[in-house]
Amino acid sequence: MKKLEIPIYREDNIYTLFYDVYHAKLYRFPHRKNSYIIYLVVFIFLLYGSGTLNKIYLPYANFFFNSLLLIVIFILSYLLARNIFYSFYDKATQRHLLIDKNKLKDYAIQGLKQWKMEIYLGGGIALGFTVFGMPLFFILDKIEFLVITGLGLVPLHMIFLTSPIKRYKILHKFINDEIQL
Question: Per-block average pLDDT, block size 10, for the chain (181 residues)?
């Protein structure tokens, strides 16, 4: 999957339709049956192991070290989000699709509703975790709040990986019949 492929519609946990901006083609990527147990286990381990991590961290706690840890969490959360995002789709079985104009418009309308839900609900909750966790990490010097910040950053990175502004514009172009396949 290239960066020029923008998701326009997701059918439950079955497949996602992507629009290739460069070639003006529509592709269908099936979803893999991924197990997110490993991510859940890592998160639980970090959350419950944070007491031990706090004992190691507290002697070094200061603004500079906290900033460094925040940068590390930002990078790790991006790498995790990227890994989850790109492993979610089975690229080996992609199919080029030809869809009639009316069906494509329906997909775009549904895709816009999905986009709004992702941005407002998913982005809002994730931003809430990040905005809640980051200042408390700096104020209280507790690793738990750094983990909460990371938990909020992962979905935010995933949202940005879908190129939300470009996606919004493309969906509107499909709705207004400005893009022809």
Answer: 78 90 90 73 77 87 95 95 86 79 93 96 94 96 91 94 95 91 74
Let me know: does 124 contact 53? Beta carbons within 8 Å: no
Burial of 14 (0-12, 13-18, 19+ CB in 10 A): exposed
Distances from the Cα of 92 to the Cα of 16, 87, 163, angstroms: 14, 11, 22
The torsion region of residue 50 among left (phi > 0), alpha (psi -120 to 50) and beta comes to alpha
Question: What separation in angstroms does the CA of 28 have from each of 15, 16, 34, 110?
Answer: 7, 6, 18, 16
